[in-house]
Amino acid sequence: MIKIGINGFGRIGRALTRINLRHQKYRIVAVNDIDEDIHNHAYLLKYDTTYGKLRDDKVEVEGDLIKINGDSIKVFREREIKNVPWDEMGVDLVVEASGVFQNVKQAHEIINGSVKKVIVTHAPNQGIDFSYMYGVNSDQYDKSRHHVISSSICDANALGPFYTLIEREFGIDVGEVTTLHPWLSYQNLLDGTLQSVSSPGHLWRDYALGRSSIGSLIPKETTLCSAMQKVLPDSVEKLHASSFRTPTSIVSSIDGVFLLEKSTTLEKVQEALEAYTEKYPGVLKLDGRSLISIDYLGNENAAVVDMRWLYLNKGKMLKFVLWYDNEWGYTSRVYHIISRLL
Ligand SMILES: NC(=O)c1ccc[n+]([C@@H]2O[C@H](COP(=O)([O-])OP(=O)(O)OC[C@H]3O[C@@H](n4cnc5c(N)ncnc54)[C@H](O)[C@@H]3O)[C@@H](O)[C@H]2O)c1
Q: How would residue 198 be classed by pLDDT, with cut points 50, 70 and 90?
């Protein structure tokens, strides 16, 4: 069984661990986090405000091990990814989920011995061999050359497949999208400073991001276009995006329009979407039910296309709404690409 190591045991690291409990495809053998309180790591894994309690799984601490249903995960407390003995633990692939750039810079240094690949769970500008998105550019992945691989960001994982399909079938002249993204741990509960909690030492630039995360929609810039460009270089000239932080804890949405190059019909767009979902199972899901964001909690798809709002104006202007669980959906994508990369 493929052995996984996780660097950074926060929202994404713990979601990955829970997803593995459900699918049992890999063995997680090592976790590293600067937070030294192993009992708190075990507690946060067992009890989760967003996803609920792990009811049927036994989580225990024994020395430097977290045991889940008897399976041991060794917990390390290193600040730098290169100081964790991944190779000694027989780890095949490390998921770098600390979000700290220093760890991305060091990622190539840990590719030795048993460690063959590192997946970085964001889209840094440097230090990456390839940005991989299944169903988008996965055919360009070269196992012999690409070792440190970005799994991009949640918003790009949601938009990428839809964008790729529409571009390929009908051509995109220009596109304008707004991401609606729940609060993140670096934001403040009450108005405050811009000091980042999740990335110590980092200061966010926009004063609005220091404002209370509950009670207001906070407009902000997004890294969606630069992340898309790393996977789909041609999108740079076509796509523009902005974002709102929403006062909700989980599940994002993208509300957008594409001006198509070729005139078409809504039926043809629907047919193309259906064909895509068959070709790339698990990536896009089509849903016409009258649902709201929280109903997509725990959804494993990269994005759900809300068929109620798919609308074609004069055969050329395609309006769409996508839903995605920014933690569980994104981490499920990371989870499913692990075996494809090795
Ligand atoms: N939360 C999301 O919706 C989401 C979605 C997609 C991608 N991401 C990306 O995944 C990464 C992690 O996000 P998260 O939401 O899990 O953040 P988080 O703050 O919940 O978790 C980060 C964890 O890393 C630990 N950490 C910090 N510095 C470290 C270091 N030097 N070495 C080891 N561990 C360290 C922290 O203690 C924390 O437990 C970020 O890059 C984020 O942009 C997050």
A: low
The string of DSSP codes covering 237-273 is GTEEEEEEEESSSS-EEEEEEEEESS---HHHHHHHH
Q: What is the pLDDT, as a whole number, of residue 286?
A: 98
Residue located nearest, by CA, to atom 39 of ligand 1: 10
| Cα–Cα distance for residue pair 327/330, rounded to 1 Å | 5
* Rg from Cα positions in the chain: 20
The H-or-E segment that residue 30 falls in is strand 27-32
| pTM of the predicted model as reported, rounded to 2 decimal places | 0.96
- What residue ranges do the domains of the chain occupy? 3-121, 155-326
From the CA of 100, how far away is ligand 1's center (Å)?
Answer: 8
**Cα 227 to Cα 219: distance, rounded to the nearest angstrom:** 19
What the block records as the tokens of 91 is 């780890």
pLDDT (0 to 100) of residue 195: 80
Residue 225 is among the residues annotated as catalytic for this protein: no
Query: In angstroms, rounded to a whole number, what is the distance separating the alpha carbons of residues 173 and 59?
Result: 52
What CATH topology corresponds to 155-326?
Dihydrodipicolinate Reductase; domain 2 (3.30.360)
- Per the structure block, which two tokens stand in for 281? 């199972």
* β-sheet bridge partners, residue 255: 178, 321
- Which atom of ligand 1 is the closest one to the Cα of 327? 3
- Read off the pLDDT of residues 128-149 as tens digits, 9 standing for 90 and up: 999 999 999 999 999 999 999 9
Q: Given pLDDT bands bounded at 50, 70 and 90, which one contains residue 185?
A: confident
Mean pLDDT of the chain: 96
For residue 193, what pLDDT is reported? 86
Backbone angles phi, psi at 133, to 5 degrees: -140, 115
Distance 13 CA to ligand 1 centre (A): 7
What's the rounded mean pLDDT across residues 182-211? Answer: 83
The superfamily CATH assigns to domain 3-121 is: NAD(P)-binding Rossmann-like Domain (3.40.50.720)
β-pair partners for 93? 4, 117
